[in-house]
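User: Fold this; tokens only.

Assistant: Input:
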Amino acid sequence: MAGPPHARAALEGLVLGDAFGDSWFTRSDEDAEGLWAARRLRPGPWPWTDDSAMACVLFAHLTAHGEVRPDLLAGEFAAEYARDPGRQYGPSMHRVLRRIGAGEDWRAVTTGQFGGQGSHGNGAAMRVAPLGAWFRDDLAAVVAQARLSALTTHAHPEAVAGAVAVAVAAALAARGAGREAPGRSAFLREVAARVPDGDVRSRLLVAAGFPERTSVRHAASVLGSGTLISAVDTVPFALWCAAGQPDDLCEALWWTVGGWGDRDTTCAIAGGVVAARTGTSGVPDDWRRACEPVPAWSRWTAGPRP
């Protein structure tokens, strides 16, 4: 079993976005601005980061079990981290995954972070788009499964809300494949309707209220673009970008990276969501050559692309 085609496409789009976004961490933001404005790709190779590593673990888990089994998934995240710890995991995730890998109960580890609040970082959201596409036919299952997947590493309600928002967005994108895309505002409001009350939901509604001609720079300044590495300042911006370019994966990634911030993660989120709708057949060859491929151990197979 290789997983539903829209979920496979979401994983490939996520990996592409992650690697593309990470390539834009250049030494000079001034140089980056000029290259971005000219739509000039950064030279390859583009390796992917922890965003893709964790998404691939999650995809392989769904392939094996058809649902999230948190005890197993937490251990699988820890095992992949131990195998390849150099994928730019955040400082708190180094500690969390080492402790889980050493045999501590994941519930105690994750709920004990940050004085008992749990992490409100963007790590649960960055990896979850393929899950949303996987369960696209049952939005209640999308919400429940996204929540379970988040709690294995991120106990804070805003981190869980960020994961739910991205999963719902990917599910809606996949459900809409082949049909006219909704407007940006309508899409974001539909996502927000499934997200628990809190700051992630509030900023999604702020994003939904932006005028149509709002610039990437303005959106990033109001919503945040991941500079705080939190779900709140990452997810609404990434979904605003995805909702604005629902039928053009590469252009969605160009828009998203233009917010700068945590650009590998914002692009991973946007790439996974848009690819769940569009597939990846339109990705140019030079992008494919530059991007580190999806690893075979993820149990993803290329096959015919949707």
